[in-house]
Amino acid sequence: MSEPAANKNLLGAYLKDRRTRLDPASFGLSGSRRRTPGLRREEVAQRASISPTWYTWLEQGRGGAPSADVLDRISRALMLTDVEREHLFLLGLGRPPEVRYQATDGISPRLQRDLGRRRVESRR
Fold this sequence. Notes:
Elements: H1 5-8, H2 10-20, H3 41-48, H4 52-60, H5 68-77, H6 82-93, H7 109-123
């Protein structure tokens, strides 16, 4: 027995699902005269700085294995959450993405308050 087509191309199905959930108007694109919901493949490809042909092939299961860089750009183009991004990497590469380092702009207000309280308590 052969697998259903949807199981053969889980990455493509996931990309299409996420693409169709996006509102074109939120990207400044016209919502009139669209035959498909969400963004067009070409619009996602442009946002991700990849070729429309390559993106189409990924959705169709003909593109081969994408690189982590391509998946990262697609995840930003589709505005994926961290959980959705991780799922994309698991489908595309079979592993989670590298952990993103998020630099902070100093000490959070909560930590500052806690440090201030401890300083006052230590003086007593």
